[in-house]
Amino acid sequence: MIPSRNPVSYPRETIGAHLSENEAMLRQLFEHCFDVVFQRVDLSEECLILMVYVDGLIDKNVFASPLFQSWVAEKAGAGGKGAVDYPVLKEHFAVVRPIRNESRVQEIVESVLRAELAVFVDGEPEAILLETSGMEHRGVEEPANEVAIRGPRESFTETLQINTSLVRRRIQTPHLKLEPVVLGTFSKTRIVIAYVEGEARPDLIGLVKQRLAGIQLDVVLESGYIEELIEDRTFSPFPQMMNTERPDIVTASLMEGRIAIMTDGTPQVLILPITFWTAFQAVEDYYERFIYATLIRWTRFVLFAISLYLPSLYVAITTFHPQLLPTNFLQNITSAREGVPFPGVIEALLMEFLFEGLREAGVRLPKAVGSAVSIVGALVIGEAAVKAGIVSAPMVIIVSLTGIASFAIPRYNMSIPFRILRFPLLLSSGALGLFGIAMGTLLILTHMARLESFGVPYLSPIAPFQPDQIKDVLIRAPRRKINSLKATLAGRPRRR
Amino acid sequence: MRSNLPRLLTAILLLSLLTGCWDRRELNDRLFELASGVDRLEDGKLLLIGQFMVPSTSEEGGGAKKPYLIETGVGKMVSECLLDMQLKLSRRITRGHRNNIYFGEDMAKAGIADLMDSVTRDPDSRLKSDIWVVKGGTALEFMQLSYPLESIPAIGLSKIRHIIGKTTGNSLLEILVEENVEGSGPTLPAVEILYDTKLRKKTLQVYGRAIFNRDQQLAGYLNRMESVYRLWITGETDRIPITADLPNGRGSFNTEVTLLHAKTRTAVNAGRVAIDVYLTGSGVILESQPAIDLRKPDHLREFEDIMNRRIEKDQTEVIRKVQRQFKVDVFHFGKALDRQHPQDWARLKAHWEQSFSDAEVTVHSRVKIKRIGLQGPPPNKP
Amino acid sequence: MKLTNYQLFWLLFSMEAGMTIMLTLGPTFQAARQGAPLAMLLAGAVSLLATYIAAKLSLLYPEDTFVEYVPKIIGQWLGKTLVFVYLLLWIAVGGIVLREYADFVHMALFDKTPLWAIILFMLIVILYAVHGGIHIVARCSEIIGPIVVFNIILFRIFSLKDLHLDRLLPLLPSDGWMPVLSGSAPAASYMSESVMIVMLIAFIGNKKKTLSSGLWGVGFAAIVLLNVIIDTMMMLGSTVPAMLQYPVYSISQYISVMEFVQNLDIFLVVGMSFTVFVKIGLYLFMTSYGTAQLFGIRNWRRVLWAVSMLVLAVALFPRNADETQVVFPLFWKNIVFPIFLFAVPFLLWMIGSARKRMKRPVRPHA
Q1: N or C of chain C: less Cβ packing under 10 Å?
Q2: According to Swiss-Prot or TrEMBL, what is its membrane topology (chain C) (predicted)?
């Protein structure tokens, strides 16, 4: 483990009784931090009250509350001597806001940064900490990336409390456990491990906690930071966790015995363990009727195969095995390719590269410009290049078909490995034809067979075959059947 | 770290494998042979003719260029001819799409036994091909014919074969099987070049069947009706048009018989083979000249009877012709005998040609007329 | 490394089906002619028997592999020698299968690509799987097996219209049963390779249904083979396939659906690659794991590298297709098949069960 760089050094362990000393120390710690406010309340000459907080993080309404004001007045009136009068404050205030006193400097500093209000009273070696968090945050909006025609329109936000509440509202049982962990020596990001007790395997929960405990990070900005550090195998194109911004997906996964990791500051929640087949399960499969869901799932399988294989198949067939093409078809393709200067593989690689470029440009560019890029791209590549005889028309069709197919995989992060693997497959098909594709397929298959996500084989329940779990993989079985499946599984240790 | 070395080596190996594109060949470096023909030259050498697809360059073509190219090669063996031909061509000959092979009549007469190997040994050339015998002509002549309907004449012939209800691409396999069956006579479809004197143009027409003897030399032809009668017995066709005449010059009628089925019964009586062929099917009247109302069952029965006698007579003639002229069993009678009387077959198979020629064949036709069309009598003959 | 019975089924099926379909049909037709389907049926029965014996034998010592229990049955030295011979045989057959496969691929797809490239590429892919352990190969076979079956069904449907029922008859050739018997030998000798389960049963978790799933795996492969041979016969008759090197390959060239789906031979090659992957994977695992056990090497994965080098050497050794497809099968059929796939396991089973019955405590050394 790498020790976190540049740890904060505190001049002293606890605060003293002198307010001015404390203030000087804190001012030094918070030097050049203009957002940290030191507010003195000088009601009389002798008694001083100092309030320290981060501007913007706390709810300033607290100053206006009569309770607070009366307490301050009373405190000042007492001449600043004697014990800090907690009972009064607590009695009135704790009803609304948590309150405690603290003498350790580190704790005080961290609390202030965590959006608490610290109140120092001269002569007291303890500070009062008030939780008054009132940070600005985004409200719950429609999911931006995971759109569903039917189903809830809520999505997670950047605020952890809102996210946990969205889940809690859907699972109203004490069995839903939300265990907090703090990660990041600088960011102090709050993370919640969510699971449903009795559904998730205890050893899995233990494994997740153990892996999370092993993480040493300065800053956690996104769940991706955690994902990469706790996944089974980093050197694999396949994601071993799923991320989602939809509370309904998280809820369903939790009820299937999976574990969700929610990170403060990002709407993306991690779900684990997953299998390969998760890539083909969309939320709507469970909202629509089962016949449609099954058919559409098969459509996805086909589209997946297209997105992975089509360009390499085209290259293999045209450059190695033209006898696979029917004669009329062959005539068209040969004519279209006549005069194209590139060999088939190079042409395909070039076009695929261009397509990826267009996609990337489309994602990065501001919305207003994005459409312009796609129009220019379509025009330049689709029309001009073919007209000029640089690229053959069938290749343009192939590449665009592949592109469309790759968008049909419901989970974005699961479509990435296939986009990546398309290129090595293309290369091997260019070298060895269909034999190359077969070998590439075998390599991919073997890799997936070796891969595990938190102890769950990536290809299960197909390989290893678990007949009792197969009902939601190749088909989406009618709900009655799935429910009965759930019932037979209840209380079994090995299930997800 | 120790386990990383093999991985690294593997990665390097895979990459190095990827760089060697040994067998890659672009479409534009290939020349697709769609049909080939073999003729026998006077000196006994072979003339191989290839019909190749020429890709049209983009859209400006406008029919100026012929979409196909014909090239020839000469040699003692087919592969020699192929090499000879390749030396004239800038693109690699690819035979994966060859569906039609033509043998000139001289070639067929000289024997095709030595040609078959070149067709089936090469993994690139496909088993699903049709071999045609060009009746009364050479393959070269035939392949030079242009065919207006299809871009490449060879495709046209395949389509004709499809239209007349034959399976396309099975004649190579069929002759291979027949050649290997004892006593069986190999056959191939035949085409001819037709000069239409009225339209003043040459065109191609499917003729019928070329019959080979056991030495795989051309023995003769069956014309189109004879071929269809033969196919009825072997069960390879699904329709046959029959024209029969009513006695006393009352006129003719035409029936199309479908759902064809044939059964062969064999018997051996004192060394002589007796064969009974039972033909069944259901007919539809396509045309009827006589002023007879077919809605009356009696009339229909008469028609049926006349038609069946006609079928029996024609079929018997076809069989007789084969027995007399070609002396090879092209009707699978030997197979039927093998199945029905294995002991007799074991005794007869050595000289089956003779036994077949001497066999007494009786044809029984039991075709039923199922439909008469839209009217009873002809509309203008009440 | 644990296997399930279901995985055993697919492992055996994939291992049996691929190469056997491709390589044994020609010899079967050569010998049995019209009786080829009967010969294949017989071969299936024989291989089932071999599998039964092998399974029974290793179920005597359910937790031990072949390498471990043979010395327990017939004594340390004899046992170890015998095991060593078996390991050599398995290495040899692994290499030869790899070569046969490469020859076939080379014939079907390539022209200029060197043979070693095909062999090496395949071997690397297999190594990657075997390195993960036998359960990885098993998982792959669980995906591969159903795909292969699906393909066979598809081929069956596509070929329906080209079948001539009359070519199937008569079932028995006119010269009696002898040709059928000799015709069943090539296929039986290939399919009796399922004796390899003596190395696999130790890894199976729940051994209650092992015997039946092993037999089903072999039986299913036999059914598929029977189906293919009948298909071949109905399309080509019984004389043409006897002259062909790969009759099934020729058939797949012939199939055409609506003039659009045609020349399916290439997909056959792909399907073959999948099953050969499983087969050689099994052999590699067995030999390297067995060698490690025999010589007391703790990490079998290190033996794997050596064994795969050996297999590679064997695969590159023969000069032409003749040596791999004629000489070796002859050796396999006439020597290995009767002795090592039948007699030895049978004797071991007899001795082993006699020992068990006598309730003599098995001493570690004798």
Answers
A1: C
A2: Multi-pass membrane protein
A433 in contact with C, Cβ within 8 Å: yes
In-domain check, residue C61: yes
Long-range contacts (CB closer than 8 Å, 24 or more residues apart) made by C338-347: C340/C85, C340/C86, C340/C89, C340/C195, C341/C50, C341/C189, C341/C192, C341/C193, C341/C195, C342/C50, C342/C53, C342/C192, C344/C82, C345/C50, C345/C53, C345/C54, C345/C57, C345/C195, C345/C198, C346/C53
Cross-chain CB nearest to C109 (options A433, A446, A450): A433
User: Taking a C-beta distance cutoff of 8 angstroms, is the pair A271, A453 a contact?
Assistant: no
Q: Which residues of A touch C144 (CB under 8 A)?
A: 445
Yes or no: say if B75 and B88 are a contact pair by the CB < 8 Å rule: no
The CATH number of the domain where C276 resides is what?
Answer: 1.20.1740.10
pTM (2 d.p.): 0.86
Would you say residue C263 lies in a domain?
yes
Percent of chain B with pLDDT over 70: 92
Residue ranges per structural domain of chain A: 19-131, 160-274, 286-457
Q: Residue C113 carries which DSSP code?
A: S
Where exactly are the structural domains of chain B?
27-224, 238-382
Residue B260, both tokens = 């064809």
H runs (alpha helix) in A388-453: 393-407, 412-450
Q: Which domain holds residue C269?
A: 5-348
How close, in Å, is residue B122 to chain C by CA atoms? 9
Going by C-alpha positions, the residue among C346, C53, C33, C359 that lies closest to residue C184 is C33
> Would you state the pLDDT for residue A164?
92
Q: Considering only A167-176, A277-286, B5-14, which range has the smallest mean pLDDT?
A: B5-14
pLDDT of A350 over the 80 cut: yes
Q: How many CB pairs under 8 A join A and C?
A: 87
Q: CA–CA distance from B198 to each of B195, B204, B216 (Å)?
A: 9, 15, 37
User: In this structure, is residue C230 part of a structural domain?
Assistant: yes
Per-residue pLDDT reduced to its tens digit, B90-145: 888 888 888 888 888 888 888 888 888 888 787 777 788 888 888 888 888 888 88
Whole-angstrom distance, CA of residue C345 vs CA of residue C352: 10
Mean model confidence pLDDT for chain A: 82
The CATH class of the B238-382 domain is: alpha beta
Please name the member of C117, C127, C240 whose beta carbon is closest to the beta carbon of B180.
C240
C7 Cβ partners below 8 Å, 6+ apart?
A: A464, A465, C135, C138, C139, C141, C142
Number of domains in chain C: 1
Task: List CB contacts (< 8 A) between A334 and chain B.
Answer: 27-28, 32, 53, 55
**Yes or no, beta carbons of C114 and B338 under 8 Å apart:** no
Which residue, B125, B124, B185, is CA-closest to B319?
Answer: B185
Q: Are A456 and A253 in contact (CB under 8 A)?
A: no
User: Which of B23, B28, B99 faces A337 most closely, judged by CB atoms?
Assistant: B28
Collect all residues of chain A within an 8 Å Cβ-Cβ radius of residue C9. Answer: none
CA pseudo-torsion sign A115, A116, A121, A125: negative
pLDDT at C140: 92
What pLDDT was estimated at residue C174? 66
- Confidence (pLDDT) at A486: 47
CA-CA distance, C124 to B161, in Å (whole number)? 49
Q: Do C170 and B173 touch (CB under 8 A)?
A: no
* DSSP structure class, residue B167: P
Is the model's pLDDT at C30 over the cut of 60? yes
A56-61 long-range Cβ contacts below 8 angstroms, 24+ apart: A56/A135, A56/A136, A57/A115, A57/A133, A57/A134, A57/A135, A58/A115, A58/A116, A58/A117, A58/A132, A58/A133, A58/A134, A59/A132, A59/A133, A59/A134, A60/A134, A61/A134
How does residue C164 score in pLDDT terms, banded at 50, 70 and 90? confident
